[in-house]
Amino acid sequence: MIIFISVIAVLAAFFLIIMAVDCNRFVIRKYRCTGKALKKDGTIILLSDLHNKSFGKKNERLLAAIENIHPDMILIAGDMYTSAKGGDIQTAKELVCALAKRYPVYYGNGNHEHKTRLYPEHFGTMYQEFADAVKNAGVRHLVNEKVSLPAFNMDIYGLEIEREYYGKFKSAQVEPSYLEGLLGKTDASRFSVLIAHNPDYFGAYAGWGADLVVSGHVHGGLMKLPFLGGVISPALKLFPKYDGGEFKEGKATMILGRGLGTHTLPIRIFNPGELVVIRLSRS
Question: What is the pTM of this model?
């Protein structure tokens, strides 16, 4: 019995150490995406799910890593702060505004931004203060709208779906027609990038016409196991299909970042934060 208890104690200590380390570091993941419609090559940094985490003072470690990559643009796939009554937006605001001084930044809302926007009676002016600050810094905050980049022959769309699509235990059905109602139609002659926080609906995003989807939300499944991947999704699904990495559906590619921070359950085991680099190249 003493041996059993000792083994359990050692394992618990081991996982606590791994969790402490992984919650306070990030790794750089690199992907390549090709597109016939692209006019030129480029480099995208994808950030998501910061949840007010800071890597060094004012996120200096994260900013330094980004500067070393020399990206053409930053795409943010939501949840940079956490929807908590009386919560903090300062860390997220400082990082996003600092990035906007150096790079073009395109921001799509996650479920936490969406929640604070919908319920100001509960969250006060949190969303409006954040949205005003990043807009004044030059960020293109895309809430069911697009921006066109003629130099790349690219359209970037920012999708915000309703809260019913973030339900627990099951996913609601999303149809391409629903996306078309929110965003309009894609132009097949242009390279379409969709910032869509929730990756569960990748099939619908592909059917709508996205060439590249960038997502977050799942935090890598909290804990990553060999051969099985992420353990649990925010919808409380075990071993979710989309936990992190690159996925294909028809002509569409989805790059799913494992995020940078945590909330509610401060757990990351064999699952450090991710700074995602996407190299775009013409076919």
Answer: 0.95
